[in-house]
Amino acid sequence: MKILYVCWLDPATTDLPLFLANAWETEGHEVCLFPYDLEFSNTAPGRLIDSAALHIGNQAWRFFFFERKIVSKCHSFKPDILLLGHPFIRLSRFRQIREKLGCLLGYFIGYNNLLERRVAQYLSASDFVLVHDSYLIPLLQGTRYNRCPHVFLIPALAEPKEHHPIIISEEERQRYGGDIAFIGGVSPNRIAVLSTLKNKDLRIWGGPTWKNVPYLSSCFRDEPVYGLKKSKIYNAASVTLNIEDDEKQVNAISQRVPEVIACGGFVITDWHKDLEKTGLVEGESIVSFRSPGELQEKVMHYLSRPGERKRISQNGRQIVAQGLTYCRIAPLIIQAISEIGQRGENP
Q1: What is the CATH code of the structural domain delimited by 170-323?
Q2: Can you tell me the distance from the alpha carbon of 242 to that of 270, in angstroms, rounded to the nearest whole number?
Q3: Which of 188, 184, 227 is nearest to 203 (CA)?
Q4: What is the reported pTM?
Q5: Which of 27, 50, 193, 215 has the most CB atoms less than 10 A away?
Q6: Confidence label for 48 from pLDDT (cuts 50, 70 and 90)
Q7: Domain boundaries 2-157+326-343, corresponding CATH code
Q8: Half-sphere exposure (Cβ direction) of 200: Cα atoms closer than 13 Å
C-alpha cells in the first residue's frame, strides 16, 4: 500500500511518524512523510505568514499554501491511505481527495484535543482513527453521532534501532547523567511533582519555558534533546522520570517509558491505566507512583540500590523487546486498516 502521512517531524517533539514509516516500509509498503514543519512552516512563505505583517487571517493563508502542496503531492503520489496528524487542510478538501483518488482517510490523535471543534469534524469524516490513549476508544468508536467505527490504539513503543544501550564516556556521563532526569515540556502537574525533588540532583530537559518556573529554573538544561542525545540521557541518568501532562493524556503513558527501558535505563513513571496493557509488572519490570510523596520515597529507595534498578530494567527490556516495538505493532495496525479498504467501507 502507498501511505501519505502529513505530520510534524520536529525531532525534539516526537520521532513517532518516522518510526511508524520505517516499520511500514519494512513490511513492503511505500510511505511518504509530508511534514508541515519542513514543507511549510520553515519555508520563506511560512515564515512570512507567521510574521506580524500577515498575522491577521494567517490561518487562512496557511491552508491556502500548505493545502496546495498536499493536493499536489496526493495527485503525484496517488496514495491508498492519506493520514493526517492535525487539521492541516480544510475539511472539504480532505473529503474531496477521497472522492477523486479513492483513498482511505485517517486521522491520528496524539493528544486528547477532542474539545477542538475542527478535530471532531475530521474524525467523523475519516475512515479510521489512530489514538495513543485507550481512554478515547469508547468515546470515538461507533456508527452514530458522527463517531468512527474503526479506532485503533498505537501504544507507547520503542525503536530498538535507536533505543538501545550505548557506551558513553565519563564526560558524557557528567554532562547528561545525574541522579534524576526529566525530559518534557511544562505543565502544572509536572511543576507540582518536580518541585518536590528540587533539592535533589534533578536535571530537566525540555522547552525553554522551564527557565521561567520558580524554584526549578536552576535544574533546567537549555539545549534541545532528541535522537542520540536523548538516548545518552536515558543511559547516563540513574533515574529517568516520566510524568504525563494530565491535560493531554488520561490512560496513556508516553513513548519515554519503553524508550528508557529499551536503552537499558531505569524509569519511574506516574501510574496510568494503559500500563496494565504493556505486560510490565510493578516492582519487577517497572516502577510507578501515584503521588508526589510516593515518588520521593521511591526515588530515594532506588537511588541507593543500583542492583535493584539493574534487575528491574533488565526484566523490563525483555518485555519491551517482545511486544512494545514499532516492528511488532505497526504491521498489525496497517493490516487492520487495509481490511477496511478491502471491505469498501467509507463514512
Answers
A1: 3.40.50.2000
A2: 7
A3: 184
A4: 0.91
A5: 193
A6: low
A7: 3.40.50
A8: 21
